[in-house]
Design brief:
Blueprint (H helix, E strand, L loop, with lengths): L1 H11 L9 H19 L9 E4 L2 E4 L4 E10 L5 E9 L10 E2 L4 E3 L5 E7 L9 E10 L6 E7 L7 E4 L4 E2 L2 E3 L1 E6 L5 E4 L4 E2 L8 E6 L1 E4 L6 E7 L4 E4 L2 E5 L8 E6 L5 E11 L5 E9 L8 E5 L5 E3 L8 E11 L6 E8 L4 E3 L2 E5 L5 E8 L5 E13 L2 E11 L14 H24 L1
Parallel strand pairs: 1-12, 2-13, 15-23, 25-32
Antiparallel strand pairs: 1-3, 3-8, 4-7, 4-9, 4-10, 5-8, 6-7, 9-13, 10-11, 14-17, 16-21, 18-20, 18-22, 19-21, 22-23, 24-26, 26-30, 27-29, 27-31, 28-30, 31-32
Length: about 425
């Protein structure tokens, strides 16, 4: 085998593999010569080295150059020579392809391209890009993948080691992809969106999925969305182009009220140069969960309301303070109280909307000259954020205190005497004035 390579080298010269078409003729002759030896030799082995034919894309509308790289990878094997031939579809081209180097040669009068390399310096061939083949695709070519497929026949595709012994290898084919050029595709999922339940006044959210497929070319697609009353949608507008890989989902929100809400989010998608498409997405939200405030009495249930003092026979008064806490929505807490005689309470009932302030019941007891206690004299019942409740209160009143007796400082006869003295003094003053 080494003699075969030596004779070929002497015949075509050590530099022949960089001088045009003759290189491919001689590599093919070498492949034919070696193939007979491979049939008789057990030295042939299968290896992973490969010739890789790349791929390129062009738009159907404009056509243009599809630049396809061709490369070699020894993948750790010492390779002395290799060659392959791959074909192309000339019906989609304006003219013949062109190659950036003579390592890839467009075969005249055919629809094939030959690729070959031979080590002229007894060194293993490296991993490298062999050439870039440019195909000028005709504008308006139908969308599709046009193969660049190699010929697997030994005369066309072969690999050799440094001793010119045939070895295994592979060729990875490529293709020219003719694609539809235009704006990306944007759609919104129209599946109804039901927002989750929650407390009255809370904000609940849901998602409207967006579906996005980029195309090719300098194109974009715009969208705008409008939410129904009671709802918001974000984002409300935007734009994507073919450099984007995905579109953001929409977020729809609503603040829960005392009634269920519903409507349609309407999105309009307008591709550049195309017609608008409308997407209608039904959205709904349940009524918010309402709760009344929780009521807290002072004193606490079971405690004693103490009224103030006064004279026997007067009324002593005290207060039962009720404080609301929390709640949501329009629910109202209420409490009604009654009293056993002689105790009385007013008003008979109180109501507490969400956010209201503390209110008082006034408790009244007629006072006597002795302290009084009335166990369980006041009973209250009502409904608040915790449900139905009952309260019971004792009432206590101090002994009435009588007003002190008024004791005059002088007797009645003393008062008459004083009056006489004052009258005499008055007459004396009149007489003195007349004498002067």
């Amino acid at each position: 085998m080494m003699g075969v390579l030596s004779r070929l080298d002497k015949t075509v010269g050590s530099g022949i593999f960089s001088h045009g078409v003759m290189v491919f003729m001689n590599i093919k002759n070498l492949a034919l010569a070696v193939s007979s030896v491979l049939l008789l030799s057990s030295a042939a082995v299968v290896n992973a080295q490969s010739i890789n034919i790349g791929s390129a894309s062009v738009p159907t509308a404009g056509g243009g150059a599809a630049a396809v790289p061709v490369s070699f990878d020894p993948e750790g094997v010492d390779v002395g020579a290799y060659n392959t031939v791959f074909s192309y579809d000339s019906t989609i081209l304006d003219g013949d392809p062109t190659s950036s180097t003579t390592r890839c040669v467009v075969d005249p009068g055919t629809t094939t391209i030959s690729v070959a390399r031979f080590s002229a310096d007894a060194l293993p061939l490296p991993a490298e890009e062999l050439c870039v083949v440019t195909f000028d695709v005709t504008a308006g070519t139908a969308v599709g993948a046009y193969p660049l497929a190699h010929d697997p026949a030994p005369v066309s595709t072969a690999f050799f080691d440094m001793a010119a012994v045939g070895i295994g290898g592979s060729v990875n084919d490529g293709e020219i992809n003719v694609v539809a050029e235009g704006p990306p595709t944007l759609t919104f999922d129209t599946t109804p969106v039901a927002l989750p339940a929650g407390p009255y006044g809370s904000t609940q959210t849901g998602t409207i999925p967006a579906n996005f497929t980029p195309s090719t070319g300098d194109y974009s697609v715009d969208f705008s969305c409008v939410a129904p009353a009671g709802f918001t949608v974000a984002p409300t507008s935007g734009s994507y182009d073919n450099t984007d890989t995905a579109a953001d989902d929409l977020t729809v929100s609503a603040t829960l009220t005392d009634a269920a809400q519903s409507g349609d989010v309407v999105c309009t998608v307008t591709p550049e140069g195309g017609s608008a498409t409308t997407f209608t997405i039904p959205v709904s939200a349940p009524a918010g969960a309402e709760t009344a405030p929780v009521l807290d009495p002072d004193p606490a249930s079971g405690g004693t309301v103490t009224v103030g003092g006064g004279a026997p026979g007067s009324n002593g008064t005290g207060t039962l303070v009720v404080t609301p806490d929390g709640g949501a929505g329009t629910d109202v807490a209420d409490v009604t109280c009654t009293a056993s005689a002689p105790v009385s309470i007013s008003p008979a009932s109180l109501t507490f909307p969400v956010g209201s302030s503390p209110q008082n019941f006034t408790v009244t007891v007629p006072l006597t000259d002795a302290a009084q206690t009335f166990p369980g004299a006041i009973t209250c019942s009502g409904t608040d954020g915790n449900g139905i409740f009952e309260w019971v209160f004792d009432v206590s009143a101090p002994a009435g205190v009588a007003a002190p007796t008024f004791i005059p400082a002088t007797s009645l006869w003393s008062k008459f005497a004083l009056i006489g003295v004052f009258a005499a003094l008055g007459l004396l003053m009149v007489g003195l004035r007349r004498n002067h």
